[in-house]
Amino acid sequence: MHDAKIRNEVRERVVRNRGGIAVFDSLSPRHTAHIVVDLQNGFMELGQVAEVPLARAIVPNVNSISAALRAAGGIVVYTQHTADAEAVQAWPVFFEHFCGSERRARLVEAFTPGNAGHALWPELEVAQEDMLVIKRRFGAFVPGSSDLHERLQERGVDTLIISGTLSQVCCESTARDAMMMNYKVFFISDACATLSNAEQEGTLSAMAYVFCDVRDTQSLLSLIEAV
Fold this sequence. Notes:
By secondary structure, this protein is of the alpha/beta class. It has helices spanning 8-18, 41-44, 59-71, 85-90, 92-97, 101-110, 148-154, 167-180, 197-210, 217-225, and strands at 32-37, 75-81, 131-135, 159-165, 184-193, 213-215.
């Protein structure tokens, strides 16, 4: 698990600006979705192309949040990072400029639907009623990425809980866009993971400053159970 917290200077600034770190004092589970970002074999398995070792440690917290929200009438959503031929054709800026040819080939191999790397990590406790969403950009809400927004709106969701990996890439991109689309967003400090404590600290600080209510798992569970 990461040993990372919101930077002190950011914490002090946030307290001056709005009176405290917490943003929302309650949530309505029936209007809330837990967005589990990209906890797939390609990020989780030892030796995989995009392995994030610390992501394996957050799974119990992710499962606890999902179970509590389901029991309270909320929705659990699993996004699946997808780097298939469609993604490569539609997003050449990333695939041609931000990874070399060997890594690009490995990413496509891992994250094409039907391949082992694309599948959800088997230690996730996925229920039949949970939602699976194919995602072809880092953020789930940017145009061309997924149909997540439309599916959430059909269900009356206005609040999101973000967990998963990588904290500063897909989790942060999804959280930023969601807040600017007028969702209330909780970003869970010990249910998101990345490659270093420094990167985790940077994300928690950015999210707490003006995008999300940054909490740990126990604090979030207390909000769900208080309803």
